[in-house]
Amino acid sequence: MRTICGTVYGVTKTTVYLDSDVALALRQIAEAQGRSQADLIRDALAAYTNGAKRPLPRGLGKYDSGEAHGAERAKDFLRSAAKKGRWPR
What we know:
Elements: H1 20-33, H2 37-51, H3 74-83
C-alpha cells in the first residue's frame, strides 16, 4: 500500500483520546468491516452532529441588515454564507 502525504481538502485533522476498551472495539469493528478507524469515527461524528441542534452565533440579530425581513431569514443567510465559506461553522 502506498502512503500519500499532503493536504486533504475539506477535512480537519484532530486528535481524539479514547478509553482502551473503546479503542479496541473500534479497531476490531474497523477490521471486520474492512474500513479505517478514521472512517468509522467520521461517520459516527457526522451522525451525532447532524442530529444535534447547533447554537446560533453570538450577536445574531444585533445588527441591521437593511432588509425588511432579515431577522426572519437570519438562519437562511447564515447557512448560505457558511456554504460559501464566508461564515465560521
